[in-house]
Prior knowledge:
Blueprint: E1 2-3, H1 8-13, H2 15-20, H3 22-29, H4 34-37, H5 42-46, H6 53-56, H7 95-102, E2 106-111, E3 114-119, H8 120-129, E4 142-147, E5 155-161, E6 172-181, E7 184-193, H9 203-209, H10 216-226, H11 239-252
Antiparallel strand pairs: 1-4, 2-3, 2-4, 5-6, 6-7
Bound molecules: iron/sulfur cluster (SF4).
Amino acid sequence: MFFGSTMMTLIAEYPEVRKLFPGLAQAAEDVGSPQMRNVATVGGNLAQHSRCWYYRQRDAYCAKKGGPRCLARGGENKYHALFTNSKCLSPCVSNLAVALAALDASVVVQRGAKTVTLTLAQVYEKAWGDARLHHSLAADDLILRIEIPVTAGARSTYVKLSEKSEFDWALVSCAAAGRVEGGKFRGVRVALGCVAAMPWLVKEANAFLEGKAATDETALAAAEILLREAEPREQNGYKIPMAKTLVKRALAGLVA
Ligand code: SF4
């Protein structure tokens, strides 16, 4: 368990986190620069706003700002989502979200007088249906803490590809968590990042991995399931082979 106000540097460098949740530590280490990780918090990383250039351009009035349509859908969509049934094509780019989703973590939020516990999917599900939202959190919600189940013998990994090797957001990322026993996957969860408005998990892909030989062939078959509903736009089809490669690398990292 750690707090929403925990600095990214602590997640990246604390020995116990690196030992128990190496995928999470790697995801934190890949955030921004050392200076940024010294001030950025877990809550801030999870709740960050869209990086879409239309959203950030002062004069572009897109659906996220209450405009009539998503300008990326028929425009410049190189960095946008592969899963495009959402109203806004801007993907969730939080490193921690994808690592925590693979770890089946819970986010505990103070909401008015109540404390609510959300899955990672619930943290982002409202962004799927409402283009104006970045996540499901209200303005006065406070992320109190993150709770991660510890499973004996489980490992975790996080990998990403970006345009720059340092100080850059991922084009696609992938996290996996679970065990490899006798050369077979057990209890594995795999999630893709930067391809949808939320960390992208597919139950059938995780079920497919159960008891299968821990090989690249198995990993690539799971990646096909993860990506089968992908609908690349004009400029982001490159994310499909990238995602397959990252699923293979993330799952290979679970093999001790
Ligand atoms: S992807 Fe989202 S933020 Fe970007 S133009 Fe479309 S609605 Fe706006």
